[in-house]
Amino acid sequence: MHVSAIFIYPVKSLRGFAVDSAEVDALGFVGDRRFLVVDERGHFLTQRALPRMALIETALTERDLVLRAPHMGACSVPRQATGPVEEVAVRIWKSDGLRAEDCGVEAAVWLSEFLRTPCRLVRIGPAFQRPVAKPGKSLPDDVLAFPDGYPFMALSEATLGDLNDRLDEPLPVNRFRPSFVISGAMPFAEDTWPRIRAGSVTFRAGGRCARCIIPTIDQLTAERGKEPLRTLAMYRRGEANSTDVYFGQNLIHETKTGTLRVGDPVEALSA
To answer: CA quadruple 27, 29, 31, 33: dihedral positive or negative?
Structure first.
C-alpha cells in the first residue's frame, strides 16, 4: 500500500488542491483549513448551506492565501498577521468561543458578494486553541484547526472504486474531500485499521467518517444531486444510527511533525 494523493484545503469548505507532499504540524497538514468563513454571529459556513463555496479556488504562496472565483478576480490575504488584528470568537459545531483573527474588510466584501450572504474570513492565530474532543479516541495533546472534528480523513482508491462500480456515473475523489488517498488496499480496509503508518507519520483511527450532503455537490459546478448518498445508504448505513452513512476513515496524527509524500508506503498497525 502507498499514498497515491494528498490534498490541502486552506479554507474550510472552499475548493482544495492536490500536492506532492505536505508537512505535518500539531494541527494537521501545514496550511490545511487554517482559514474559515463565518456569518455575522461568528458561526462557521459550509457547502451544506452554501454550495457556491465549492466554486472558490484556493492557492497558497509562501506569504498569502489567494482566493479566485468566476467573474470575481482574485483576493489575497496574508497567511499570518502582519500587524495589529481584531480577534473574534467563532463556532464550529460544539466548539464555541474559538479565538480567531479577522482577515479584514476586503476579504469580507469579496466573499459576501460572491456567496450572496454577509460573511467574513477568519484565520488561526497564536490565541487559537481547539482540542480534538472525541472521548475514547483523542488524547490531551490532540488538537486541530477548522475541520469538522478530526485533523485528517483518509480514503482508499479501492473504496471509491467499489462505490463507482455501483453508480451509473462514477464520481471523482474530490466529492469526498480526503486529506490523502491510499492505493493498494482492499475496499473499506481503512474501516478496520486501529492505527496506520504513512511514510514517517503515524495515525490513530478516529472512526468511520459519517457523510453529510457535501459529496452530493459537484465541486466544479456547485450543482447538487442525490448521489452518492442514495447508493451509500443501501450498503453503508450505521449500525447505531441508521441515518448515518460511512465512507472513509477519520484520523488523528500521533506524529506531530513530519512530511507526508505521494508514494510513501502505508502500513496497517495494531492498536
So the answer is: negative
